[in-house]
Fold this protein.
Amino acid sequence: MVLSIAKWVGKVAVVTGASSGIGAAIVDRLIEKGVIVVGIARRVELIEKRAKSCTVKEKLYAVKADITKEDQILKALKWVEDNVGPIHVLINSAGVILLKGLTETSTEDMKTILELNVLGLSIITREVVKMMQAHKISGHIIHINSTFGHQVMSHAFSIYPASKFAVTALTETLRQELNSLGLKIKVTSVSPGLVATEMTTLNKDILPEAKEMFDKIAILQPADVVDAVVYALSTPEHVQVHELTLTGL
């Protein structure tokens, strides 16, 4: 199997959660590879700062949007299509984790997790698929999932594992739907274990139970997840990677 990301050079990729952590690392790697990247996040100033440091050959656009708000998602995608071009790749990296038990989780916090990790992901995916279909694009959609989407390893994460189990199911239901529609759009779930980001090991407000678990687990870096994303994007047109699971050693 010959791996090459060349088919995406000059094409448009949308990355959510692009202001920091895994999302920001994905943005950096894709623009280095010659992909035109649109980073979507609430903290858009962080993406704008990165855009200013781009070379002449690198193209990065920053769009402010809250992925929990459908109207902002629709507005952002319309701006991309009108000002940058049709979307070929969507990487759903936006997400939130809650480091506390269910009994300590407020209803508002539960809603936030589900609205971002599940509903927001589903809405933007739905809209991008329709755009790809309209433009007859053989695109690729990648969900940044988690090993928690396959196995619950601690109680100290409230409904976060439930939200990621939903992402696992959504990946498979979308794959089946795209097949039934005869669309040549790939969908991949990338499920890393513990990754060093401001939501996890760099979070100063984590519960003792979570910190204890983190101390026992080998930690991945955002670059490790990016490698998996690039691998999935580099597969030939006839090869679809449904799931990539990464853990530290």
Notes: Residues 15 and 74 are 15 Å apart (CA to CA). The radius of gyration is 17 Å.
